[in-house]
Specification:
heterodimer, A: Amidase signature (AS) enzymes, eleven-stranded mixed beta sheet, two-stranded antiparallel sheet, 14 helices, globular, B: mainly alpha, 2 helices, elongated
Chain lengths: 479, 60
């Protein structure tokens, strides 16, 4: 990690250590605090906590300082501050960051040339005044639900550093929950935003498939890959999400539709909303803490109807098949030339994926369209569906198995039991943290395609009610 | 002596597709292949009409 300059003296009137992105931007915009001071404080927190949490794999300190200085200079000249002015943020290390190799959690990609240009979403956040401070740890090539990485070591959960962050966006979860930055970006193919949100106790948004540009990020499964934000409040999710919207021809899956801002609608409350609870598959195997959290959220939003999402088990199976085969296709050349350089757990799944007949993959894609149609029918009678994000709170790092429905199953693939059927058809989901003791857990708020606004509105209401919150861990100054 | 057809399949597929499956990796690849094929069977057994087209749409 680069050496850090001594922190500038913090403005006594503003403490950025657990401040939201919205609060920081307001303080910087009003001159209450300089962007430079906010960034120095963030860099100091990273230097102090990262040796324990292992969330960052690269810190872009000099770039961040230069950017903060430019923001302060622009404000001093009377220019309007951006809506994210001076907000430090970091990205999963599969996002291109100019001047750094996009490692995507792998050893192999370290030999690749540095990225020439930032990812599209980094450009959008920085255009709004945010300041990139680094790249974050992740499971190798995003084929992971644990946040453990063979090459960089595991991301550690800020609430209990012997426990997993969840993955594959493990560093993205740990950096926000551990108070190093108020905002991070991650990717979600089968649950990699929602699982770390749950295990780390923060808010996460997996938008509709095709909503946010994936341009200049390292892919995993083109049919299922999404990018999205993590934050400690629903408002920050909405703020950053709105700023990242917009068509981008550089991403083949990006939808050509106008931006539909969610932040202006976030205070509308629950009136007129019909919220249901997913039963059956989505509660089988859930441990008591997941059901407690689900019950608490359901009661708070008046969700009385339990609905059955048809064939969810098959939807998960189809997501699994598409993931392993498309992933194998992506990495085929690397498997042939450098199989020894993979994490064995990733390599062996990809080798198996390369041997699956194409007929079975086509059937999985056929089923995907069928399942989408059934889900759209369900949304005729409700506006949002609640389901657990994970079957349990964070397991111990290195834990290989856990009990689901009385059966001992491997942790790595099964943490995504409840997330996979949903991302399979690209529905938007807000993961909301319920601050249970000793470890938090999140609930998914699933809404119809392109209706991120509804999920964010419900999430914000739950936060106002005190039902959902990102708990502050001791390592970040909490009690 | 009969062998598990999955073992034969892995050896044949690895050779035909130029996939470097070392002998010590065979068991783990087999375990993963077994899980994936079982999940694929869960989908394949579900009856869909002949006009159920795949989800991805290509727009020229």
């Amino acid at each position: 990690m680069p050496s850090l300059r001594p922190s500038t003296r913090p403005d006594p009137a503003f403490d950025s250590s657990w401040a939201s992105a919205s609060e920081i931007a307001a303080a910087v915009g009003s001159g209450q605090v300089s962007a430079a001071a906010v960034i120095e404080d963030a860099l100091a927190r990273i230097a102090e906590r990262n040796p324990v949490l292992n969330a960052f794999t690269a810190v872009t300190a000099e770039r961040a300082r230069a950017r903060a200085k430019a923001i302060d200079a622009a404000i001093a000249k009377g220019q309007k501050a951006g809506p994210l002015a001076g907000v430090p943020f970091a990205v999963k290390n599969l996002f291109d960051v100019a001047g750094i190799a996009t490692v995507a959690g792998s050893k192999i990609n370290r030999a690749y040339a540095p990225a020439k240009k930032d990812s599209a979403l980094i450009e959008k956040l920085e255009a709004a005044g945010a300041v990139l401070v680094g790249a974050l740890n992740m499971g190798e090539y995003a084929y992971d639900f644990t946040g453990e990485n063979l090459h960089d070591g595991p991301s550690r959960n800020p609430h209990d550093t012997t426990r997993m962050t969840g993955g594959s966006s493990g560093g993205s979860g740990g950096a926000v929950a551990g108070g190093m930055v108020p905002l991070s970006l991650g990717s979600d193919t089968n649950g990699s935003i929602r699982v770390p949100s749950s295990l780390c106790g923060i808010f996460g948004l997996k938008p509709t498939y095709g909503r946010l540009s994936r341009a200049r990020s390292f892919p995993f499964v083109a049919s299922l890959d999404h990018l999205g934000p993590f934050a400690r409040s629903a408002r920050d999710l909405a703020l950053s999400y709105d700023l990242m919207q917009g068509f981008d021809p550089d991403d083949a899956a990006c939808a050509d539709r106008p931006a539909e801002p969610a932040l202006p609608l976030i205070e509308r409350g629950l009136e007129g909303l019909r919220v249901a609870v997913a039963g059956g598959y989505f509660q089988q195997g859930a441990m008591p803490e997941a059901l407690t959290a689900l019950d608490r959220v359901a009661k708070a939003v008046g969700a009385r109807n339990e609905i059955d999402i048809p064939e969810a088990r098959r939807a998960r199976a189809a997501a699994y098949v598409i993931t392993t085969t498309e992933g194998a296709a992506l990495h085929l050349d690397r498997l042939r030339k450098a199989a020894d350089a993979f994490d064995p757990a990733v390599r062996d799944r990809l080798l198996a994926g390369a041997m699956i007949p194409s007929t079975l993959v086509v059937k999985a894609q056929n089923f995907r369209r069928w399942f989408r149609a059934r889900m759209l029918e369900l949304f005729e009678s409700c506006d949002a569906i609640l389901a657990p994000a994970t079957p349990c709170t964070a397991p111990k790092i290195g834990q290989q198995t856990f009990m689901i429905d009385g059966v001992e199953l491997p942790v790595r693939p099964n943490m995504g039991l409840y997330t996979q059927p949903i991302s399979f058809i690209g529905l938007p989901v807000v993961a909301v943290p319920v601050p249970l003791k000793p470890m938090p857990i999140a609930i998914q708020i699933i809404t119809p395609p392109w209706r991120e606004d509804l999920g964010l509105r419900i999430a914000h209401t739950l936060e106002q009610q005190g039902i959902c919150a990102a708990p502050r861990p001791a390592i970040a100054g909490g009690t | 002596m009969t062998t598990d057809p999955l073992d034969d399949y892995i050896v044949a597929a690895a050779r035909a597709l130029a996939l470097p499956v070392k002998p010590e990796w065979h068991a783990a690849v087999k375990a993963n292949l077994d899980v994936t094929l079982k999940l694929a069977a869960v989908i394949a057994e579900f009856e869909l009409p002949d006009d159920a087209e795949p989800a991805p749409i290509y727009t020229p």
